[in-house]
Amino acid sequence: MRCRTRLGFIFLCAWDLYSYALGIYILNLLIRFLSPQVDPEFQDLSDGPFLPNRSSDEFRPFVRRLPEFKFWGYLKVLLEKMTS
Domain boundaries in the chain? Predict the structure, then answer.
């Protein structure tokens, strides 16, 4: 009986830690989704920003560090694992 009570208490306390870790993971995904792939502060801008020279080049002013498709995919997998 005592062992059951102690295990129940450990699992109850572990739920807080588990929820906290999941919250940090989701926040990390959100920050990676909202941040640019190349930080303009550390990028060498001595020549200034450049535009594409050829028609095959594509002008991308903002490229995300984590693409939207992967962001939603990671969240979907996380929610599926949480509910199973």
Answer: 17-39+61-84
